[in-house]
């Protein structure tokens, strides 16, 4: 949908990312007002700066997907995202980052990560071959 927006409006990745996140922000504010019956923006000052990083990370994600899809293909691009999320989730669990409870990495998790990485390499190899 975002590429269709980009083509229809003849805009670049940065503008399309902005429009995408503006739509998401308006929708989220609507849900906050209707469901929670309060404006979450009033609580902005109570949060730490790093808690807002997920929005920035999301914007970078969308922006770089615009770049990655045509060059790497959708499957390889999404595979890298999945691989990054799995590896980061194991790191967050292991060290108990962001206030999460600690769950140490186990041999099973390490083997699972190795299998996912192997799958990623095979998919990238297949994509490079053009099969």
Automatic annotation (TrEMBL):
Signal peptide: none
Record keywords: Membrane, Transmembrane, Transmembrane helix
Pfam family, one: DMT_YdcZ
InterPro entries: YdcZ
Residues spanning the membrane: 18-37, 49-69, 75-95, 107-125
This protein's record includes keyword Transmembrane helix: yes
GO cellular component term, pick one: plasma membrane
Protein name: Integral membrane protein
Organism annotation: Grimontia hollisae CIP 101886
């Amino acid at each position: 949908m975002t590429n269709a927006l980009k083509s229809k409006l003849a805009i670049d990745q940065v503008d399309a990312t902005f429009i995408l996140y503006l739509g998401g922000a308006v929708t989220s504010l609507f849900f906050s007002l209707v469901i929670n019956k309060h404006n979450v923006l009033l609580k902005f000052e109570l949060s730490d700066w790093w808690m807002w990083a997920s929005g920035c990370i999301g914007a970078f994600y969308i922006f770089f997907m615009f770049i990655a899809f045509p060059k790497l293909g959708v499957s390889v691009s999404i595979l890298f995202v999945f691989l990054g999320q799995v590896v980061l989730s194991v790191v967050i669990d292991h060290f108990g980052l962001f206030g999460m409870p600690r769950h140490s990495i186990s041999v099973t998790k390490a083997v699972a990560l190795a299998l996912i990485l192997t799958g990623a390499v095979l998919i990238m190899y297949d994509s490079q071959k053009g099969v």
